[in-house]
Amino acid sequence: MENSHESQSLHLKDRRVDALGNFNLLPDELICAILDYLTPRDIARLACVSRAALDEPLPQESQRSTSIHRLLEKDDVAFVFSSLQLKLKLKFPIFFLLQFCILVSNIAGFLFIYNYFNAERICRINIDYCRNPLQFDGFHSFFLYKRLYRCHTTLDGFSFDDGNVERQNDLSKEHFDREYDGKKPVLLTGLAECWPARTNWTIDKLLLKYGDTAFKISQRTAGKISMKFKDYVSYMNEQHDEDPLYIFDHKFGEAAPGLLDDYNVPQIFQEDFFDVLDRDSRPPFRWLIIGPERSGASWHVDPALSSAWNTLLCGRKRWALYPPGRVPLGVTVHVNDEDGDVNIDTPSSLQWWLDYYPLLADEDKPIECTQLPGETIFVPSGWWHCVLNLETTVAVTQNFVNPRNFEFVCLDMAPGFQHKGVCRVGLLAVDGGCLVNMEKNMSCDKDNFNNSDLTRKEKRVKILRSQESENHEETANSASRRYNLWKHGFSYDINYLTMFLDREKDHYTSPWSSGNCIGPREMREWLSKLWVGKPGMRELIWKGACLAINADKWLECLGKICSFHNFPFPNDDEKLPVGTGSNPVYVMDEYVVKIFVEGGLEASILGLGTELEFYNTLCEVDSPLKNYIPTVLASGILHLENGSFEIDSWDGKKVPGVLAKCNLIPEMGKGDVFPFGIRSKKLVEYRKAGLPESGPDSSAVSNSIWPYLITKRCKGKIYAQLRDELSWEDVLNLASFLGEQLQNLHSLPYPSLGISSLSVVEQKKEFSVANGMDIDIACNELDIHIPAEWEIFVRTLSQKKKDVSSRLNKWGVPVPEKLMEKIDGYLPDDFLKLLFISEQNGMKRALKPLSWIHSDIMDDNVYMEPCCTFGSNEIAALTDNGSVNGHNDGGEVKSWRPNYIIDFSDLSIENRSITANDKFGRLSYQAMCYCILHDENVLGAIFSLWTELQTAETWEEVEQMVWGELSNYQGVACHVTPTPNL
């Protein structure tokens, strides 16, 4: 009988081919990955069409249908499956899903259950639904079996030695700096013995105190979820997940402030350069980590190449670490060559220990240790590490930047991808063609190392495909070869790594990696604060600034500008550009230099030209606004000629020769005084709204030509620095001041755009075809005469409406889904309706007049000066030395008053709204439409500030809450004269 049974087993037909048809060519791993994108109901439907299902002894159709409906409607699902329900949003027992997945052969990922285990064991908690275990012959999958094994294995039997990470007790700061910081990991004992967390951070005690507190849960998908701690503990005790969820919360201090009182940052780790940033600007740096057996952190390098310490309070953790540049077996690193964003494909921690670790030769094994309760492990900058929880653990960890890793952090922030790839994977990031000459390049002259061959759309360093793992001998040899390559010439040295930095990529104009822990503006702010707050470390800070923001390059440019105009060279305090705006701005004692780089050469020259035209207009009409605008001292264009800097003075009133040479010449209109002023700027906006690009591409020379502007320095502080300390009266005075100056701005005469040229007319048809609209037809139907500049306005808004939903989703705007569904219905179907139409001499005309718009009145573009009060109505400004008008009469600083508005390079010409009776004339409606269509994330800021907007049912509710007061506005905009025929 036994021999007969064995003989029958040997001749079992493999049903995989019949079950999958042509899809049988796909490996189980890929099929399971595809199934991750399907909903449970889709998987169930897929199961119903399996060819293998035709031969199986299933229940009668009526009985099966009744069972299905009963299971679909049942709510009291056993909590053992709650983790998978959480991930897939299941509403029915998982065993129902398993039965149907089995019918699709091994597609579902659980078919192997019936080959290796009794179904009663797997479903013992849900026994009512599997009284009669089913047997399915002919289905085998080693891949699926290993997944099941990872779901149910225990780690009690894991046999580890003590590891080879050094253990130290009572380590001094000097000893740590000398032997370990930036060099190698170390296990420290005794640092947490006095912490309350040593006794308070057990699961039972945390559950008692923080059971109803929600913490963030880590999962492999991009979305983040939160779970009450009591629910997570229930999940943790019942789950049998392949990769269990675990708490990994960087905002635990906000969720449970009492936890911060239970521990202190060890003295040897207390220096952290990110401390100078405000809490809102500082990147995530501390995490509460709680996880069950088999959970853990897969292979990674800590953000921004920062260092970290991790203290374990209960349980045991197994650590594996590799030095910088040595990628672990089974890990794939992706580096995008557009912005340097780094992504890592890695097996789970448990999978790596089970499937990959046994393949390693002794010389290729990682540095290892088992961390015990009360121990703190230090992970240096750039080290790869993987953590596996051997039992339920509770830990706290923090990342930090100190003098040892500061330059590495700055390098990691810099634009480009070559250096990021080398920092993560060493010389494996270098293409094979470069490896041939690597040895002699390294031995002769490192500076001659050719980086130009390294570029491609996406760098992939594939260390091992999972299906290759079955060839143990080949894999082991491959690991040894990679180890030798890693050792060959690679050095985790800042000077060595800097060789791979692309110096041609400019910090201010190149794409900023989305994976960076802070943005470019925050980076500049951080360096500026360090420069002021740590004068004793300026040599180090300067090195980092040169890596991250090309500080040396821009200082050289600044020196040429100052020398050309006979201005004093910046002193040591003034060497770094200030951390505001998107252009290098240097604030000296008496003057400010702004170098235009944002958006490339065309945008830069239009920004400076617009600003100079605006200043000229202020002086011509003697506007009161000019008293609150910094005086222009000089302006010009800096450019490279044959490797040396040259400067051409430019007042905006001609086409400079350097721009003529690169064919950047605007379309000239009649009487153009400022060829690169507001008119040219509107034409560029017109093109960007959908018309074909015209003229030659100037991008090739844009990285060697930089317009600049020098203005008198504004005394006082920017509003961003004073926001939290201003009195309510100061805030009201500021609002009144801005209202008065904006009225002065809107009252300025606007330039004749003169855009009704032949070129615009010729492009109308192309624009209409490309964007599915024809403004001429709309105007003819309404019998309206639309000046050319308003055609630009209407076309631009129409184009922005087409992709508004995708653009807002890309921003990640926190707008409720119910509002996103109504956004197209809220916006005008025809933006001509936003124009105020009046009939003159039998013809309908658009009468909305134009006015100057600042476009960028941010909290860092308004200056305020301190005031001294002498009586109930006597207020005077203080000078820099604390006196009033140069005389110290004993006044006391009690308030601040606005004195300057800066940065008019983003000026625009827009409509001056006129109220009307319908919704299209409401100022509140127009403002809401412009917020929705704005190029920047205005809508995101609004919904972040007004949390009550989350309950709004319609856009009209949002409009009234945010902009309702505008509809009552009775200012200058309501008393305008008709627009003349342009």
From TrEMBL:
Residues 20-51 form the F-box domain. GO terms for cellular component: cytoplasm; nucleus. Its main location: nucleus. Its cofactor is Fe(2+). It is found in: Nucleus. Coiled coil: none annotated. InterPro entries: Cupin_8, F-box-like_dom_sf, F-box_dom, JmjC_dom, JMJD6_ArgDemeth/LysHydrox. One of its GO terms (molecular function) is metal ion binding. Residues 254-417 form the JmjC domain. The keyword Nucleotide-binding does not apply. Keywords: Iron, Membrane, Metal-binding, Nucleus, Oxidoreductase, Transmembrane, Transmembrane helix. It comes from the Eukaryota. The chain crosses the membrane at residues 94-117. Belongs to the JARID1 histone demethylase family. This is F-box domain-containing protein. It comes from Gossypium anomalum. The lineage of its organism: Eukaryota, Viridiplantae, Streptophyta, Embryophyta, Tracheophyta.
